[in-house]
Design a protein that fits this description.
By secondary structure, the chain is of the alpha+beta class. The chain has helices at residues 73-79, 114-133, 137-145, 148-157, and strands at residues 8-14, 19-25, 35-39, 49-58, 61-71, 86-88, 91-94, 98-108, 163-176. The chain folds into 2 domains: 8-70, no CATH class; 80-176, Band 7 domain (Tetrahydropterin Synthase, Chain A), CATH 3.30.479.30. The chain contains 4 helices and 9 strands, in the order βββββαβββαααβ. The strands form 2 sheets. Strands 3, 4, 5, 6, 7, 8 and 9 form a 7-stranded antiparallel sheet that branches. A two-stranded antiparallel sheet has the order 1-2.
C-alpha cells in the first residue's frame, strides 16, 4: 500500500517588493526552480506591472530572485491615444551579473516622422545600455519598480521629442553570468 503524502504551505519572502507569499507543495525540494508571478497593479496605482520570481532552495532555506518584469498589454493599449506614435525596441545587454533582454516602449505626444522615432529609439538604447552596464540585477529591477530609470530616460529623450509615456515594457534575465 502506498503512503500518501500531504501537501502543505511553505512561506516564501519576496524581498524586492517586501512581501511574502505561500506556496503549496509536498516538500521543500519540489519548490526548487518554480516560478511565482505577482501582479503589482494595485500596489503601483493602476500601472499594470507583473513580476516573476524564481524560487531557489539551498540548505533548506527558500529564497526568491526576480527573473522578469513586464507591463501588461491592457495598460499599454490604454495609454496609446489617437494622433500619437509609439516606439518599441528589443536588445540584449550585459549587466554586472547577468545577460538581460530589455524592451523599452515610448509614446510620443503627437504624430512624428520616422526620423524622429528612429532618433528616439537609438538614444533610448544608448542611455539604457549606459545605465544598466554599471549595476547588478536587483538594483536594476528595483530602479524600474521605483520609476527611477524611466524618469531619467524620459528627461534625456525630451530633448529629441517630448514623450507622453516612457516605460520599460519587458526586462528579463536571459542567462546568469
Amino acid at each position: 500500500m502506498a503512503i500518501k503524502k500531504k501537501k502543505k504551505f511553505f512561506e516564501i519572502e519576496l524581498p524586492l517588493i517586501n512581501k511574502s507569499s505561500a506556496l503549496y507543495s509536498y516538500d521543500l525540494q519540489s519548490l526548487n526552480n518554480r516560478y511565482i508571478a505577482y501582479d503589482l497593479t494595485r500596489a503601483l496605482r493602476g500601472k499594470g506591472l507583473e513580476i516573476k520570481f524564481k524560487v531557489i532552495v539551498e540548505n533548506n532555506q527558500i529564497r526568491s530572485v526576480p527573473r522578469q518584469l513586464r507591463l501588461v498589454s491592457y495598460f499599454l493599449r490604454r495609454m496609446i491615444r489617437k494622433g500619437t506614435n509609439y516606439v518599441e525596441d528589443s536588445f540584449s545587454i550585459k549587466c554586472k551579473d547577468a545577460q538581460l533582454r530589455v524592451k523599452p516602449f515610448l509614446i510620443t505626444r503627437k504624430k512624428v516622422s520616422r526620423a524622429v522615432r528612429n532618433a528616439l529609439r537609438i538614444k533610448a538604447k544608448e542611455e539604457i545600455s549606459n545605465y544598466i552596464e554599471k549595476k547588478d540585477v536587483n538594483q536594476i529591477f528595483d530602479d524600474i519598480l521605483k520609476n527611477k530609470l524611466q524618469k531619467e530616460l524620459s528627461l534625456k529623450l525630451k530633448k529629441i521629442y517630448p514623450l507622453s509615456l516612457c516605460e520599460i515594457r519587458v526586462i528579463k534575465i536571459e542567462k546568469d553570468i
